[in-house]
Specification:
Strands 7, 8, 11, 12, 13, 14, 15, 18, 19, 20 and 21 form an 11-stranded mixed β-sheet that branches. This protein has a 3-stranded antiparallel β-sheet with strand order 3-5-4. A 3-stranded mixed β-sheet has the order 6-10-9, with no helix packed on it. It has 10 helices and 21 strands. Strand 7 and strand 8 form a beta hairpin. By secondary structure, the chain is α+β, with helices and mostly antiparallel strands. It has 4 domains: 57 residues, no CATH class; 70 residues, RNA-binding S4 domain (Structural Genomics Hypothetical 15.5 Kd Protein In mrcA-pckA Intergenic Region, Chain A), CATH 3.10.290; 94 residues, Pseudouridine synthase (2-Layer Sandwich), CATH 3.30.2350; 174 residues, 2-Layer Sandwich (Pseudouridine synthase). The radius of gyration is 27 Å and the shape is elongated.
Length: 406
């Protein structure tokens, strides 16, 4: 957080000589009213106010609040309610500020316990540091942008691009591209100057993502994702075709058939017990996950289709959710190199489908539509993305099976 950490003795007249642009100074003391000198003696630092004034100028924002909530409640909850929404400071960020020593009472005493209770009329000051520069490098990578304004942008991510830098993929990611594209328009999100990745899609999944450019947009969009009010629909090519006539599927825990042929899959998702890079469905552990599935088309014979085009709508957004749920149902996604369809062999009844599946080297999954409320205008925005070329080619190949089997 700090550029330089110094332990110094300083005369108050020297404070004005410090250039805040060239260095950051942190003085760590147990009692802010007294500084222990190097010789072991203690004396009052009468000019501490000047130092505090200098330090205050190094913060992006100083927020003075008066608690007008009559019911006593946790400090972090109270501050999250009182801090203006346009600043986009989430409750988790408030907790970080409290524990890091950036919240104080009217006398200047630090309040570093997020669980401490507030009272009506209490005066609290919150200091918000300038966001740290991201250590991720910007890269001039062309983006397929569907929409952009001063608050957010919607981008159509190609298959093969990682969303955020991670071990093994530190460059050529969506974040690298966004840093170059957005330049200085980015605000600090979570204390770091970077684009606000509100949600992600897998490296080999293509399609639409919304990205926040301001703290406020990030906070408001995150709330919509948490409340499951964002509309997200994916198109997937799967082995076989889910059917209510499949006894094994109808008896599978978490699967139910709804009106108009819609299938609801409810299954908790957690880390695989053996392969930690995979996720799996569990009955008693894991995170609640719901996917709704509609059959858009099937390929092969009506009585025994070898593949299908499915529309999958997310109610929740767990890691690998659609891939895990479809694989659990025995209708894994064509080309998925991580989750192999448990009943794939029973669907591969011809050399044609086998060759199509083997030649498709990524999961045939595309984030086709995205809808949400704009955090500032409150207008509903909706976007749709056509199938990428590789999935269009797969569709054409699979449709040939229907011609061969009228």
């Amino acid at each position: 957080m700090w550029d330089i950490l110094l332990l110094i003795e300083i005369d108050s007249s020297d404070i004005i000589k410090i250039n805040p642009r060239s260095m950051t100074i942190a003085i760590i003391v147990v009692d802010m009213r007294r500084i222990r000198m190097l010789n072991g003696s203690g004396e009052e630092f009468s000019k501490l106010g000047s130092l505090v004034g200098f330090m205050n100028n190094s913060f992006a924002q100083k927020i003075d609040l008066v608690v007008d909530i009559k019911t006593a409640q946790r400090l972090d909850k109270t501050l999250a309610q009182l801090i203006p929404k346009e600043l986009g400071i989430s409750r988790s960020r408030v907790q970080e500020l409290i524990t890091s020593g950036f919240v104080s009472n009217v006398t200047g005493k630090l309040i570093n316990d997020p669980t401490s209770k507030t009272h009506f009329g209490q005066q609290v000051t919150v200091l918000v540091p300038h966001p740290n520069a991201s250590d991720v490098l910007s890269e001039n990578i062309k983006l397929d942008i569907f929409y952009e304004d001063s608050d957010l942008l919607v981008v159509n991510k190609p298959a093969g691009m990682v969303v955020h830098p991670a071990p093994g993929a530190y460059s050529a990611t969506l974040v690298n591209a966004l840093l170059y594209h957005c330049g200085e328009s980015l605000s600090g999100i979570g204390g770091v100057k970077r684009p606000g990745i509100v949600h992600r899609i897998d490296k080999d999944t293509s399609g639409l993502l919304v990205v926040a450019k301001t703290n406020f947009a990030h906070s408001e969009l995150a709330k919509q994702f948490f409340q499951h009010s964002v509309e997200r629909k994916y198109l997937a090519f799967a082995y076989g075709c889910p059917s209510s006539f499949d006894r094994k599927l109808t008896q599978l825990s978490g699967v139910s058939f709804e009106a108009k042929g819609q299938i609801k899959m409810v299954g908790k998702i957690g880390r695989h017990k053996v392969n930690r890079k995979k996720m799996a469905v569990f009955e008693s552990s894991g995170r609640h996950a719901v996917t709704r599935i509609k059959i858009k088309n099937y390929f092969g014979t009506k009585s025994s289709p070898v593949a299908s085009l499915l529309e999958c709508q997310l109610e929740t957004g767990r890691t690998h959710q659609i891939r895990v749920h479809l694989n659990y149902m025995g209708h894994g996604i064509i080309g998925d190199q991580t989750y192999k369809a448990r009943k794939r062999a029973s669907f591969v009844t011809s050399k044609a489908i086998n060759s199509y599946a083997d030649s498709f080297k990524r999961q045939a999954l595309h984030a086709a539509s995205l809808g949400f409320v704009h955090p500032k205008t409150n207008q509903w925005l909706s976007f749709s993305s056509a199938l990428p070329k590789d999935m269009e080619s797969l569709l054409s190949s699979l449709e040939e099976l229907n011609i061969a089997n009228p």
